[in-house]
Amino acid sequence: MTQKPKPLSTIQVNGPIPADQARSIIEESLREAILDGRLPCGTALRQQELADLFGVSRMPVREALRQLEAQSLLNVVQHKGAVVAPLITNNAVETYALRSVLEAFALRLSIPLLDDSDLALAAQYIEQLETETDHAEIGKLNRLFHMSLYHKAPNSKLLDLIERELNEEERFLRFHLSSMGLGKLSQDDHRALLDAARAKDIDKAIVLLELHLEKASVTMRRYLEQSSNP
């Protein structure tokens, strides 16, 4: 019987890693592998195995794992250590309700401060989303589009919380597009949201955002229902 390759074998390490960049390189390599499914849910990530893979001590590995845990991509499980978190948890619907509050607040704070370059960047992400068919890139561009509209909010803690939740959505979006055989998403919601931001119509932008997030919440509810009733 042919043995399945170990998940860590999918991670390519190109040469020695500079000590001052070790944590960030390990974090980004593991993050991408989790987001695109190369490291499936439930995969245990052993510090020594990772240290051997990347050719570093355990200290930067430990720091990278802590960062990924803070992003809800890993859970620390007794006797197993760091484990890749479930794709989506049963509290996802509640999470989306919280996202609606947080992102609406960030959008309200950010819109008055957005300049032409910010709006042009958001439009660029939409154009890329219109033609992109790679699921990993679509998930990334979707996250970047939303953050391009929120990033001027003068509240770093708020933005950190939002980006953490967008990381979770990015992972689910990649999986959803792949499992549904979808090549891309309609950008109508994003275009309407950008138009409202460009017009500095904060109230309209918030309504559009809440409707957009509700659609995503419905998709997650369906996924959870199907998962509980195979």
UniProtKB/TrEMBL annotation:
GO molecular function, one term: DNA-binding transcription factor activity
A Pfam family of this chain: GntR
Keyword Ligase part of the UniProt annotation: no
InterPro entries per record: GntR_C, TF_FadR/GntR_C, Tscrpt_reg_HTH_GntR, WH-like_DNA-bd_sf, WH_DNA-bd_sf
Ranges for domain HTH gntR-type: 20-87
Classification via PROSITE patterns: HTH_GNTR
Keywords (A to Z) from UniProt: DNA-binding, Transcription, Transcription regulation
Gene3D superfamilies: GntR ligand-binding domain-like, Winged helix-like DNA-binding domain superfamily/Winged helix DNA-binding domain
Xref: CDD domains: WHTH_GntR
Signal peptide: none
Family annotation (PANTHER family): TRANSCRIPTIONAL REGULATOR, GNTR FAMILY, TRANSCRIPTIONAL REGULATORY PROTEIN
Name this polypeptide is given: GntR family transcriptional regulator
Native source species: Pseudomonas bijieensis
